[in-house]
C-alpha cells in the first residue's frame, strides 16, 4: 500500500460517463488486496502441504483448487472483455507505458510454450488414464483454455484505465493475479520435487521427504500405473523441460495484471502520451542495430554461444563419476566468474557514463516503472541470500581447495553483479528521453508563479486541457525532432549505452537458461551440502532460486526497455 | 521503492542553507537500501546458521557481528547528534506526523526493559566467566550503551527532515535500521531455540536439531560450565521473560528510523503543521476518558483481566498430564474464540459507522501513515499463514473431536478478526480530523480553475506561501474551534468510535501478552504436529508467529492513534 494517490483535486473531475465518483481509492484497493492475499495463502498452504509426502494433502487437491481458480478467473475475464467491447466509453484512457510490445510478445511466446506443455501433460496423464483421477487430465485442458483467454485479454486490454465497476474490476484483476501466482508456485514446487528426486539418486540421503509426482501417484492408486512406454516417457521429459516457460508466462501475466490493477480508475490527460517521455515509442525495426558499435552484441553473442556449449557439457558430465563432476564444476564456475566479472565492469562503466550525462531525470508517475524497480530489487534478494549462505559456508568450512575458492569468487561476483546491474538499470529507466537536457526544461526552475507550479498537476487533469502557452513551454518536442539536433558527443554516449544494454541482455539470457533448465551446481558442489546438511540447503536453494531465475528474465525485459530508451 | 516523489517543481526550490540540490532522490535512496539489504542478509545468514547445531557457525560469531554493528551505528548516531547540535539550520523542517509521543514513550519503556534484560544477561554470563568467550559479556554491555544512545537520538531527532550530507545520512539511518532488525532476528531466533528446547522435553521427537544456548555453550568449552547456582538460574529465567520487550524495542526503533529515512531531504511548508490534519495534536490528559461511553474500556478491561487469569492457569496446567492439558487447551481456545468474535463484531460495527460518516478522506502525503498501513497489512500475513495451515490440518486430518472444532473456529475467527480490524484501522487513519465534512471543503469540487487545482501542490511549496484568499478557503480551522460547533449527532458517532478503539486496544494487548510470554497452543494441541510433522510445523510457527506478535503490538499503537484522532 504505497502512498501513490495523486492529490485530492486531480481525482475529482468526473470521467466521461464514469460510475459514481470514487472518494477513497485506497479503500477499493484494500478489499481486492485482502481477497488476493487470502486466496493466495490458501493455495500456498495446499501446494506446500502437497509437496511433502508425509502430509495427507494430495496433488489432486491442489489440481482441483487450481482448476477451480482458473475457471473462475476465465469467467471473469470473459465478462470483462464482453463489457468493454459493448461499452467502449468504459475505458476513457489508456496508459501508454503499460504493456509494451516486447512484454506482450514475450507473453504470447511463453503462452504458446505453455500450450505445448499442456499437450504433453495431457498425453502423459492419458497414458495411464484407467488408474488416474479425472482431475489430472482436466487440469491441463482447463489450463490451456485459461492461457488462451488470458493471453487474448492481456493483448487487448493491458493498457486500459477502466472507469466502471471499479471495485468489481479490482477484485477480478486481483483474483486473476492470485491465480497466476498460485500456478507459478505450483510449477516451482513441482519442479523442485522433480529436481530433488533426480538428485536423491546421487546423494543417498534419506533426510528429505520429497518424492516425484509419478511415485506419489503410484502410492495412491497402486503400483500398476507406471510410465513405461516410450511415448509416455517422452511426454514426461518434455513437460519438465517446458516448465520454465510456464513459470515465466505466469510471472509476465502477473506483472501486467498488477499494472492494470494500478490503472483502475486512473485519470490521464491525453497530452501525457506525447509528453516527451519516449517510453511508449517503439523503435523502427530497420535501425535496430545501426546505432550501436557492434562490440556489445558481438561480445554478448560470443558469451551466449560459449555459455550454451558449457551448459551442455556440464549437464552431460556432472552426472558421471567423481573426477568428471569436479572438472565440470570447475568449467562451470570459471565461465560464470568470467561472465559475471565482465557484466559487473560493463554495468559500472554504464553508471560512470551517466555521471557525465546531463539528461533530466523523469519524475512523472509511472506504475509500470515503479513495479519494474520493485521487482528488480526484490527478486535480487533470492540470489543475494544464496550467495551469502555460500560465502559463510566456504569461509567457515574446513576444506579449502580450488573449488571452494571458485565458489567464493562466484558468490562475491554474483552479489556485485546484481548490485551494479540494478543501479544501472534503475538509473536508466529514470532518465528522460535523449535530448531533454536540463538547460532547456523551464519547469525545473524554482516556482515562477502559479502557472508553472501547476504544470504537473495539470497533466493528470483531463477536464482542464493545457492552454497553448503551457503546451509551448513543455520541456521536449517529439523525440525524432530532438534526435536530429543532438550533439555528436551525446550521440557517442548513446551508442555506448545501447551497446552496454545489449551486452547485458545477452548475458542475462544465458544466465537465465542455465538454472532454468536444470543446472544445479549448488548440489553437485559438496561444500554447502556438507556445511548446512542436505535438507536445510535444499530448502534455501529451492525457495531462493526461483526468485533468482525470475530476476534474470525480468532484467532481460528491463534491459530491452533501456536499449529502446537510450 | 514506491513512486512517492512529489512532482518535479515541488522539489526544486533550494532549502535555506541546504547542500547541493538533489537531482534524483531515488538514486540516493537506492544506495542506502542496497547497503542495508546486504548487511541484513549477512546477519541473517549468520544468525540462521547459528541456530542450527549441525552447522559450524557459533553464537560467538553472531555476537561478534552484532556487537560490531551496534558500535558502528552508535558512532554514526553520535556524529549525527553532534552535527545537528552544532549546526541547527541543517534541519530546516520537522515532520509533525513522525514520532508521536506514544511511540516515543513506548520506545523509552521498552528501552528500560531492554536495559534490565542486559543486566540479567551480563549477570548470567558472568556466573561462568572463567570458561566463556569475552564477547558474550561484552555483547550485553555494548547493547546497553547502544540502547541508551539510540533512545536519546530518537527522542530528540525523530521528527527531523535533515538537509545536509543527504547520502551519508541515508546510509547511516539504513545501517542503524539494519542493526535493529538484526538484533530483532537474533532475539526471535534465540527465543525460538529456547522454546523448542523446553518443548522437546514433552515431545520426545529427535527430528529437530535445535539446542538451547547453554547446551551449545557447554559443547564448545567442556561440561564444567553449567548454570547451577540459584542466582544464575534467576538471571537466565529473567532474561528470557524480558525478551519480548527487547523485540518490541527493536521494532519500534526500526519504524521510527524508517520514517526518518523517508524524511531525509524532504521539503515541508511551515503551514502544513497547522493545516487541520489533527495527527499531531496530543489530547489533554484530563479528558482522556470523558469522551467515551465507558462501555468499551470497561468491557475491554474485563476481557483483559479474564484473559490474564486464563493465561496463567493455562501456563500452569499445560505442562501437566494429558487430561489437564486437554482442559487447558479447551479453556484457552474458548476464551480466544469469544474475544476474537467480539473484536470482529466491534470492528465491523466501526466500519458500518464510517459508512454514515461524512468526514473527508485525508489524501495528503504522510510517510508515517503509509508505513503503518504497510506494516499492519504485512504483519497480518504471519497470522493468516498459521491459520490457513491449521484449517487445512483440521479439515483434512482424521480425528474430529471437540479440540479440532475449537481449533477450526479459532483459526477462522483469527482470519476474520485480522481482516476487519485492518479495514477499520486503515479507514480510521485516512479520515480527516473531526468536523471536516465534505460540504465545507471547496477543494473537493471539480476543478474551478488553476487556483483551486493548485491548492494541493501549494502546500508542499515552501517558497510560495499561501495567499490570504487561499488560506481563508482552506478546509478546516483549528480542531478546537470545530469541536465546539460539532453537531450532537456527530458527537455520538465520535464517542462510539472512541469506545471501539479503546476496546480493540485492550483486547490486542491481552492477545499480545499470551504468545509473547510463551503460550504455544500450536504445539500443545497435537492436530497440526501430527499432520505436518514436528519439524515442518515448528518451522511454520517459528517463522510466522513473530510477525503475528508484532502485529498485535503495532495494532495497539495504531489504535491509540485512532482513539486520539476520532
TrEMBL record, chains A, B:
Localization, UniProt: Cell membrane
Top-level taxon of the source organism: Eukaryota
UniProt entry keywords in alphabetical sequence: Cell membrane, Hydrogen ion transport, Ion channel, Ion transport, Membrane, Transmembrane, Transmembrane helix, Transport
Pfam families: Otopetrin
Mode of membrane association: Multi-pass membrane protein
Transmembrane segments: 30-50, 62-81, 101-117, 137-156, 240-261, 293-314, 334-354, 374-396, 500-519, 531-551
Family, similarity comment: Belongs to the otopetrin family.
The protein, known as: Proton channel OTOP2 isoform X2
Amino acid at each position: 500500500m504505497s502512498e501513490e494517490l495523486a492529490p485530492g483535486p486531480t481525482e475529482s473531475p468526473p470521467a466521461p460517463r464514469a460510475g459514481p465518483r470514487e472518494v477513497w481509492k485506497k479503500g477499493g484497493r484494500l478489499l481486492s488486496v485482502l481477497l488476493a492475499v487470502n486466496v493466495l495463502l490458501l493455495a500456498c498452504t495446499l501446494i506446500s502441504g502437497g509437496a511433502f509426502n508425509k502430509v495427507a494433502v494430495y496433488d489432486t487437491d491442489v489440481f482441483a483448487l487450481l482448476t477451480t481458480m482458473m475457471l473462475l478467473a476465465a469467467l471473469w475475464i470473459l465478462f470483462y472483455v464482453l463489457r468493454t467491447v459493448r461499452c467502449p466509453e468504459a475505458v476513457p484512457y489508456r496508459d501508454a507505458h503499460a504493456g509494451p510490445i516486447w512484454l506482450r510478445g514475450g507473453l504470447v511466446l511463453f503462452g504458446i510454450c505453455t500450450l505445448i506443455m499442456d499437450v504433453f501433460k495431457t498425453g502423459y496423464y492419458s497414458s495411464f488414464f484407467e488408474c488416474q483421477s479425472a482431475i489430472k487430465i482436466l487440469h491441463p485442458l482447463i489450463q490451456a483454455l485459461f492461457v488462451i483467454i488470458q493471453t487474448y485479454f492481456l493483448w487487448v486490454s493491458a493498457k486500459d484505465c477502466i472507469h466502471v465497476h471499479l471495485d468489481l474490476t479490482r477484485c477480478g484483476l486481483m483474483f486473476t493475479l492470485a491465480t497466476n501466482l498460485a500456478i507459478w508456485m505450483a510449477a516451482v514446487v513441482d519442479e523442485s520435487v522433480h529436481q530433488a528426486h533426480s538428485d536423491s539418486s546421487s546423494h543417498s540421503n534419506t533426510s528429505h521427504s520429497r518424492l516425484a509426482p509419478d511415485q506419489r501417484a503410484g502410492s495412491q492408486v497402486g503400483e500398476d500405473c507406471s510410465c513405461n512406454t516410450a511415448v509416455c516417457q517422452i511426454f514426461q521429459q518434455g513437460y519438465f523441460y517446458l516448465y520454465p516457460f510456464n513459470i515465466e508466462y505466469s510471472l509476465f501475466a502477473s506483472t501486467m495484471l498488477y499494472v492494470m490493477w494500478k490503472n483502475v480508475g486512473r485519470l490521464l490527460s491525453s497530452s501525457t502520451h506525447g509528453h516527451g517521455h519516449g517510453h511508449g515509442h517503439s523503435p523502427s525495426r530497420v535501425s535496430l542495430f545501426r546505432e550501436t558499435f557492434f562490440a556489445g552484441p558481438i561480445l554478448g553473442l560470443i558469451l551466449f554461444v560459449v555459455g550454451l556449449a558449457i551448459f551442455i557439457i556440464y549437464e552431460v558430465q556432472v552426472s558421471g563419476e567423481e573426477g568428471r563432476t569436479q572438472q565440470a564444476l570447475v568449467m562451470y564456475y570459471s565461465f560464470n566468474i568470467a561472465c559475471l566479472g565482465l557484466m559487473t565492469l560493463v554495468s559500472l562503466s554504464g553508471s560512470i557514463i551517466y555521471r557525465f550525462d546531463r539528461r533530466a531525470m523523469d519524475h512523472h508517475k509511472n506504475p509500470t516503472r515503479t513495479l519494474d524497480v520493485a521487482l528488480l530489487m526484490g527478486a535480487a534478494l533470492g540470489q543475494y541470500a544464496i550467495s551469502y549462505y555460500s560465502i559463510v559456508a566456504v569461509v567457515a568450512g574446513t576444506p579449502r581447495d580450488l573449488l571452494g575458492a571458485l565458489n567464493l569468487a562466484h558468490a562475491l561476483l554474483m552479489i556485485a553483479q546484481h548490485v551494479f546491474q540494478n543501479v544501472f538499470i534503475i538509473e536508466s529507466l529514470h532518465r528522460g528521453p535523449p535530448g531533454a537536457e536540463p538547460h532547456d526544461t523551464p519547469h525545473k526552475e524554482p516556482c515562477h508563479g502559479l502557472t508553472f507550479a501547476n504544470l504537473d498537476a495539470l497533466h493528470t487533469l483531463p477536464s482542464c486541457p493545457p492552454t497553448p502557452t503551457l503546451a509551448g513551454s513543455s520541456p521536449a518536442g517529439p523525440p525524432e525532432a530532438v534526435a536530429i539536433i543532438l550533439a555528436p558527443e551525446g550521440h557517442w554516449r548513446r551508442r555506448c549505452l545501447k551497446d552496454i544494454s545489449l551486452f547485458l541482455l545477452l548475458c542475462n539470457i544465458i544466465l537465465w537458461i542455465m538454472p532454468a533448465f536444470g543446472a544445479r551446481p549448488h548440489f553437485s558442489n559438496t561444500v554447502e551440502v556438507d556445511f548446512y546438511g542436505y535438507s536445510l540447503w535444499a530448502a534455501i536453494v529451492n525457495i531462493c532460486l526461483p526468485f533468482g531465475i525470475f530476476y534474470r528474465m525480468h532484467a532481460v525485459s528491463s534491459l530491452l526497455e533501456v536499449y529502446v530508451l537510450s
